Task: inverse folding
């Protein structure tokens, strides 16, 4: 597979995994729910920004850029997002997920499972 094919596949998978628009994700990242979920590098909530929250900010940046301006590092993050969304979706809890930390974590990564 050539590098361009890999980039095309990655871009397609990323845009399928991320179903929130940049403005919608930006608004979500400002909420208390968004800030209280996820793994924090310090190992605790309040120990700085969570990995998912930081990823959400990167996703907004990626969505707002032209595809031709994306770097290899950008594609690497896109693959990380796709992997996270796929793994997390496979762990969907039963019942109504509207107000769950499971959904909130996914939303930090740009995917709202209720869409």
Result:
């Amino acid at each position: 597979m050539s590098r361009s094919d890999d980039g095309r596949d990655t871009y397609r998978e990323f845009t399928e995994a991320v179903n929130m628009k940049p403005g919608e994700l930006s608004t979500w990242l400002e909420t208390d729910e968004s800030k209280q979920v996820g793994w924090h590098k310090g190992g605790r909530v309040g120990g700085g920004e969570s990995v998912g929250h930081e990823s959400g900010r990167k996703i907004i940046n990626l969505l707002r850029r032209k595809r031709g301006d994306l770097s290899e590092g950008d594609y690497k993050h896109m693959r990380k997002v796709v992997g996270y969304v796929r793994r997390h979706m496979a762990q969907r809890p039963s019942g109504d997920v509207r107000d769950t930390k499971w959904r909130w974590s996914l939303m930090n990564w740009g995917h709202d499972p209720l869409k």
Summary: The radius of gyration is 14 Å. The longest helix spans residues 72-89. Residues 3-35+50-108 form one domain.
